[in-house]
Amino acid sequence: MSVNQQTHTGPPYGQPQPGYQGFQQPAYGGQSLPGAPQSQYGAYNGPVPGYQQPVPPQGYFPSLGFPSKGSPVSLNSDTSLAPNFIGSLRAPPTSGAPPPASGASHPSGHVAYSQFEHGDVQNGIPASAAPMQRPPASQPFLPGSAPTPVSQISTFQQYGPPPGSVQQLRNHMAGMTIGSTAASAPPPAGLGYASVPPVSGSVSATGSGLYTPYSASQGPPLPSVSQALPVAQPPFPGQTIPTQRLPAQVPGFTPPPPSTGVGPSSYPPTTGAPRPPAMPGPPLPGQTVAGPPSSQPNHVSSPPPPSAMAGLHPGPPMSGLHGPPPPTHPPQPGYQMQQNGSFGQMRGPQPNYGGAYPGAPNYGSPPGPPPPPKRLDPDSIPSPIQVIEDDRNNRGSEPFVTGVRGQVPPLVTTNFLVKDQGNASPRYIRCTSYNIPCTSDMAKQSQVPLAAVIKPLATLPPEETLPYLVDHGESGPVRCNRCKAYMCPFMQFIEGGRRFQCCFCSCVTEVPPHYFQHLDHTGKRVDFYDRPELSLGSYEFLATVDYCKNNKFPSPPAFIFMIDVSYNAVKSGLVRLICEELKSLLDYLPREGNMEESAIRVGFVTYNKVLHFYNVKSSLAQPQMMVVSDVADMFVPLLDGFLVNVNESRTVIASLLDQIPEMFADTRETETVFAPVIQAGLEALKAAECAGKLFIFHTSLPIAEAPGKLKNRDDRKLINTDKEKTLFQPQTSFYNNLAKDCVAQGCCVDLFLFPNQYLDVATLGVVPYQTGGSIYKYAYFQLETDQYRFLNDLRRDVQKEVGFDAVMRVRTSTGIRATDFFGAFYMSNTTDVEMAGLDCDKTITVEFKHDDKLSEDSGALLQCALLYTSCAGQRRLRIHNLSLNCCTQLADLYRNCETDTLINYLAKYAYRGVLSSPVKTVRDALINQCAQILACYRKNCASPSSAGQLILPECMKLLPVYLNCVLKSDVLQPGPEVTTDDRAYIRHLVTSMDVAETNVFFYPRLLPLTKADVDSDSLPAAIRNSEERLSKGDIYLLENGLNIFVWVGVNVQQSLIQNLFGVSSFSQISNALSTLPVLENPFSKKVRSIVDMLQGQRSRYMKLIIVKQEDKLEMLFKHFLVEDKSLSGGASYVDFLCHMHKEIRQLLS
Ligand SMILES: [Zn+2]
After folding, report:
1. Dihedral, 1027, 1032, 1033, 1038 alpha carbons, nearest 10
2. CA atoms 476, 481, 485, 488: torsion sign
3. CA dist., res. 963 & res. 558, Å (int)
4. What is the DSSP letter of 706?
5. Residue 480 CA to ligand 1 centre (angstroms)
6. In 32-132, which residue ranges form alpha helices assigned H by DSSP?
7. Per-position DSSP letters for 61-90, written without gaps between them
8. Residues 786, 938: Cα–Cα separation, whole Å
9. Each residue's pLDDT tens digit, 157-205
């Protein structure tokens, strides 16, 4: 066997690994290149017979914790370093004025930088703040950390139809128990959801010793649920026919059907083993367990007369409505709350849905008081809180193992671990559906978009295994001859292992001699478990020179800091703040593996109407400035000494950063240029022949005479007109062309904006957007209140994992193909997504369409290949594979959907739509598409029932509430306080968001702080986003990924106010606070730890806003209570649900 015998010209790789055949040498062959990175990657070289002498895994490199920034740094620059060294190209004279007192001090109550640890990006309850750790993008493949054949054999399931009844097994929804399935003639493919125990916790797969059988203790037991559940509703004694505001009235909302008999065990084929039938599980959404249901039914019934639909009729019994039904509408089938369309008519007493606080555990408690009549009971409509809670309870306890095709992962709001056994982790890829229609006609009929939200460089929690780096030497990765797909677990080896058939295009390719391996009796290569690319869903290949630009291995990337030094930037203290910060931050540039220092070089530019370049060569005693005032034709006035190694030029850089604030302290220049700044950075990278990132700190609309000069074209009068789209479009194509040049060079732009007025984010954002960069915006930046947020964002942005010069391609198996892409990137053709830079927070959403028929047997495959340059200049390929099921029954599609991902896709689709269509058109299209999705389900999957019923698929029961949030968002329906720049900014942000981010952005998390248990690490149970859920006596926290609001009710106990704010009364609470005071009492500590925890979960530092009830800021807060009617005209959840129902009925009639 000749593996790993090739010589290489790359940098040294990996450590000597005893026992690893062919891997005795420290370098992976050949000579090391100057500046080549040392890495911790143990190369994964070639087939090994087995793991000999396992070495403990060495996954994460030591924390690169950012230094504590707790103590103020003196901002007084050393006057001995006065700018006179600068020579002829002198900057404006320095004033020597002392820095603003607040310049470097930190507000009390701030949290340490360590909160940016990323292990917890996955929602759920995060670990407490810890020193920042930045795991490497990939990790060595070491025997000890590899999946062991033993465990894999026992758990890895062959793809294919699950054993047992396919239909039964295919049912995949944790959480719904519908017992009447059989009786009500469910549609094929198992609409009857058995009362399934948590998917992850309940699989006692045959042959697998890894799973702990579900135990009833993992959730509230549901004994005799079926018996206990009422089957029909009580009459509606007091109901009257609504005469006004019909939409707000209730159509019949009935409780979910009881689960009788837990029909066939409906397990997803995912775990590969049939589940025990009729296992009692936790209460399911909508189920009543000896008391009011703890969650919302997903079937909302409304009275039949369509004419009255816009307003809900009185009529049928509905949950929450009490009283006898109007004579004209006696209770009848079709008015019950249904689940999944899987049961028919139910009558009988219905539990009260009354007063109990939704989401509160109500198990066993007596029904609450009846709600007021004439109003649709919000507690009876599907609750996001309950769905999130149920998924957490059901799926948070066991790891999500990716060995089986088409498994729907736990929700993004559930904290779970992932074990890669052949498919990419949901942290890398999430799909709108994991079971896709076999034909294009079916797909069209359902209108469910088929899309994948891909985050190729996602950060993993420390407990999870990073992708292994595989080195095939000079021959590079093994690929299909025809479609060029990379070797992956789904390739079929044939002819004794001499050839393999491509799982994407079916082409047969010779196995290269060095890659040959024998097959075992099952046809599997005997080195299957030794090779990540054969057994794992995600891994990396070291790229050969063929994958490099100009057939040359890349140089390490560079970071260029470009600071606006115009009047506003200087006066606000921003320039001084940035310079002070950079002095320490530069020691924390991204490093690869165990490298001692970062390979990234740095450069500095300041600018207003002209640009100042700095020579910070290590041999200089002092930095030198060179001014370029001809901004029309930008060039870089110096090559040698502009981009330097931080350690080598440490003193010169420090000196420069001390002097910049002084040099411009007295500036009177208010005008700025912008495009020439980007051009300068681009030219510098070109000259250095490397990729890199520009960090631009900018304050104003660039009105100075220069290319890319802009004018103020903001015009709110355009809102709601056909010209509204122009507000989102760039005002000149100049930046599009510039972006294209940047992408070609691998020049990524991150933009930090500090506007005091309109600065045209839509135009300034073009280059960051198309280069894969980020935009941060701090409107009306004030040092005291905003510096901490800005500095945290900057630190994280500088340190985060990023790949450069990236190209991503998504290959698919025959029958579907990627047709559309959303995200921050550039495309020069129809298949390749190009990003000058791609960081660990960015996602690319890919939509698929059919181009042929798919088969249930073979399913569908995706392979996402990302070619990029690491922060040390290493060229790599990261591969993510995902296999999906295919179905001939629409019910299977609806059962395997993920609404959070669907919303992520729909929001991006709509946010792109506003560039070309009137906003109203976009909104209507969204509503229409969702109505079609739900109508198709109703028509084809739900059991026959009255047309008056609103029946929602279990997996999509939150689609209406979430869709309404998208429709009401600032981009699609701006309130008066939302600026044009805000809208462009949000549009940009959302486009790159992952599913967890869109989830909390559109439906914020609302936590009752006063209910928090100060003795536990847990968060208080979230509540629904509606004003009626707020109590005047409590304090709440609301977060959406960008802001954290702390809302204080007028009747909050004085002691709580004292403990949290350190003042003695409600009226004394200052809403100017940007942090909570640090007070030594349990409540203060608890609340601050919650805030820190939330900050640690988000990719941006959230702005903290204190809101007092009945204060003017409360309007802003209420904007985020998304279940309520909004001031800008957005519908309440209840109203919108009724509207959707009407739309669906129209489609069905
Ligand atoms: Zn192929």
Report:
1. 40
2. negative
3. 42
4. S
5. 5
6. none
7. PPP-PPPP--SPPP-PPPGGG-GGGGTTS-
8. 50
9. 333 333 333 333 333 333 232 222 233 333 333 322 333 333 333 322 2
The dihedral of CA 981, 983, 986, 992: what is its sign?
negative
Interval between CA 812 and ligand 1 midpoint (Å): 9
Distance 813 CA to ligand 1 centre (A): 8
* pLDDT of amino acid 375: 58
Q: What is the CA radius of gyration of the chain?
A: 30
pLDDT of residue 691: 97
CA 481 / ligand 1 centre spacing (Å)? 6
Q: Is 763 left (phi over 0), alpha (psi -120 to 50) or beta?
A: alpha
Q: Which residues contact 234 (CB under 8 A, 6 or more apart)?
A: 317, 322, 349, 350
| 47 Cα–ligand 1 center, Å | 22
Which tokens in the block code for residue 487?
A: 């070797």
Candidates 880, 869, 862, 865; CA nearest to 809 is 865
Tokens, residue 263? 């029909």
Eight-class DSSP state of 1009: G
Question: Helix, strand or coil for residue 743?
Answer: helix
Distance 210 CA to ligand 1 centre (A): 34
Which of 677, 713, 719 minimizes the C-alpha distance to 698? 677
Sorted by sequence, the CB contacts under 8 Å of residue 740 that are 6+ apart come out as 770, 826, 828
Single out the residue of 1032, 1033, 970 nearest to residue 1002, CA to CA.
970
Q: Which of 751, 797, 775, 765 is nearest to 581 (CA)?
A: 797
Could you tell me if 739 and 681 are in contact, meaning their C-beta atoms sit under 8 angstroms apart?
A: no
Render pLDDT for 793-805 as a digit per residue (tens, 0 to 9). Answer: 999 999 999 999 9
* Interatomic CA distance for residues 983 and 914, integer angstroms: 11
Which residue in 1113, 1117, 1132, 1103 sits closest to 968, CA to CA? Answer: 1132
Q: Among 857, 786, 102, 879, which residue's Cα sits nearest to residue 489? A: 879
| 747-753/692-698 β-pairing | parallel
- Residue pair 458/837 in contact (Cβ under 8 Å)? The answer is no
- Is the sign of the CA dihedral 316, 322, 327, 330 positive or negative? positive
Cα of 505 vs centre of ligand 1, distance in Å, is 4
pLDDT of residue 757: 95
**Residues of the chain predicted below pLDDT 70:** 1-375
Other residues' Cβ atoms within 10 Å of the Cβ of residue 1079: 18
pLDDT averaged over the chain?
75
**SS3 track for 1069-1103:** CCCCCCCCCCCCCHHHHHHHHHHHHHHHHCCCCCE
**Which of these, 136, 140, 135, lies nearest to 28 by C-alpha position?**
140
Instruction: Tell me the angle at which helices 899-913 and 980-991 cross, rounded to the nearest 10 degrees.
Output: 130
- Contacts (Cβ under 8 Å, ≥6 apart) of 300: 251, 252, 253, 337, 380, 381, 949, 950, 951, 952, 1137, 1141
Q: Look up residue 340 and give its amino acid.
A: N
Alpha carbon of 1036 to ligand 1 centroid (Å): 54
Residue type, 34: P
How far does residue 738's CA lie from ligand 1's centre (Å)? Answer: 36
User: Minimal CA–CA distance to 1032: which of 1108, 1113, 1120?
Assistant: 1108
Helix (H, G, I), strand (E, B) or coil at 549: helix
Q: CB–CB of 52/146 below 8 Å? A: no
Q: Give the residue carrying structure tokens 């250095």.
A: 688
How far apart CA 1043 and CA 1027 sit, in angstroms, is 18
- Give the span between the Cα atoms of 1132 and 684, in whole angstroms: 53
Tell me how far the alpha carbon of residue 546 lies from the centroid of ligand 1, in angstroms. 19
Distance of CA 300 to the CA centre of its chain: 30
